[in-house]
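Posting for a labmate who doesn't have an account.
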Amino acid sequence: MPWIRSSFAEAMRRIPSLLWGTFLVSLISLPGCKGKDANAEGKGADSTRAGSDSSGMALPVAGQEARRGDLILSVVTTGQVRSDAFAKLKSENNGTVDAVLVTPGQVVHKGQPLVKLDPRPFDIAVREAEAALEQTMMTYRDYVVPDSVSTGRAVPEDRRANAEIRAGVPAARVRLERAKLDQERSVITAPFNGIVDEVSVAAGERVNAGQDVVSVVDVNNLRIEAQVLEHDLSLVRVGGQAVITAAAAPDHPVYGTVIAVLPVIDSIKRAGRAL
């Protein structure tokens, strides 16, 4: 019927070229509709055979059993490797760097010394606190011993506590504990197993409390932080499979699991994050 061909061709010209492939596939998937008479079927079969005979080429047809299952959708994006532990260690005391014991890239273990401050000021502070405590203890004994000697009995517990407070024993003990803590903190140690990322001080340098000293990163517990566009975020589920490939090793993918989908959307990138 020529008028059908003409209408079909005119409709095709109105379809954007981007949709032509999809539309063509849809058309190919529709033969075998009911409503044709036997003669039309016979003519169609004859014309098909004639076309096959004239071209001399047979197209292979394969059948496969349909099955019920989930439609798997993939979201392709880029991400960055993050560590579960990245520590910028700071000096907790004022002092002078006595020794730097590590270099960037060095493997360290938990508790390993990284940087040492000059220990002499801290040792002196501890000895001063010990001397002050001993002096307060002498004052305390001056309060309780005469009463014990004169009465011949042990001083009651409440009187002992009052005498300690008057002598300043509790405060002296706290100062000694603080001096020992500062002495301990004069050595900066690794908080976990990892690799030294950066050393910010050198031997002989004066540092203040709160100043950056060393950075340590844990390379054994890593995660991928991926940016997911807002319209794709609903397709990502916790527990879903993640396939990670790197430009350095494109033929060796790493398989993981989505552990979190962060709901906050970046207003500029219009993307959320998945871990």
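Reply:
Got it, the structure tokens are right above this. Residues 120-151 form the longest helix (32 residues).
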